[in-house]
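Table S2 (text version). Query chain:
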Amino acid sequence: MPEVFKNFINGEWVLSKTGATFNDINPADKSDIVGVFPKSGSEDINMAVEAASSAFDKWRKTPAPARAEIIYKAENLLRKRKEEIAKIATKEMGKILDETKGDVQEGIDTAFYMAGEGRRLFGDTTPSELKNKFCMSVRMPIGVVGLICPWNFPVAIPSWKIFPALICGNTVVLKPASDAPASSMELVQILEEAGMPKGVVNLVHGSGEETGMALVEHPKVNLISFTGSAEVGKKIGELCGRNLKRCSLELGGKNAQIVMDDANIDLAVDGALWGAFGTTGQRCTATSRLIVHKAVLKEFTEKLVERAKKIRIGNGLSPDTDMGPVINESQLKKIHSYVEIGKKEGARLLTGGYFYEEGDCKKGFFYMPTIFMDGHSTMRIAQDEIFGPVVLIMPVNSFDEAIEVMNSTNYGLSSSVYTKDIDRAFKAVYIDYSKRLQKAQIDTAKEH
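Corresponding structure-token output:
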């Protein structure tokens, strides 16, 4: 029987008031249930928020260096349990063990950095415009913060949100993704063991639609930090704006890698393989467009396809695996539907484009690394975030055209350029930024 887990509210591990549960499924083997977790509702969220609200005054008055001592203890515990937590993360969300070790390491690094910030919460002094007056500012916590996290970096992203919030004196209600709840539970257990006072950190499992939105709408939550899709982010931003909550959103991307005619092709292929197929393409920063100068298009494409065909697909816990499964069946079907769209749009399929079901992989949600050729900016597969191992090669004639193609989407998250010309590289940084800013201003004007 799979283990049954609970919420963490006011320093206690408790069952959900709804009595409902959901299964945390291993995407490499859908018959393997990692654990059973509470499918919480608004009553559970209310209990957690009330606990965080009650704990806030005492926590904010705790000296920041003392808060830092607890976070530093958590850093040490994370470091000791790195291998164990990485295996849990791989088992519940699929990416290879080397990646989940890196995921946990980001949590360790964030805790270490933020512990140091306990002695650097500096304010400012400024001259007064009035006689015999002295002006200064000090940093003050915001209050109860609601943290809604995705499944693809199940330790790193909660760490990026939790540790800064805590060191600044805020209290926390964490709602992890229902596809990867066990990793967040491990992180909260470590904070409990490190000596975090009751009510300061609370963990509530459940769906985004019910549990997440209940957290967003709760009147005692002063800030929401959300990482996820642009569609959901728009809804959260609207609700926070309507209720004058502070809001931090980190949303989707349709990221591009430019490969110029003077690029080191082998290095560019290495970058493209990692960017497109690392984490099975399930990253907001995944490379889903390859903008390649026609002078090197043939060489780059041939080498990329050859390397992609050699990617070893399988369970992320196996040391021989290069790429793990897709997170769930729904996402698997979505990826394949976009492959079909790409074919209908006229993109030329070079490799992949089908479910991978050889050997033990038939038990899970696996998809072949997929490369399309002959892409152009009007294609849906060049515009929509697919969130899977699918990449589109888009030929260009010049550097200026490459920048135009790069900026032809509504997303503006990450990009890269491969060139040996340092002037061109710096132009890419400046032109890319300025054109994105101009486009954002135009889009905003259109909306209003």
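Notes on Table S2: Residues 149 and 176 are 5 Å apart (CA to CA). The two ends are 55 Å apart (CA to CA).
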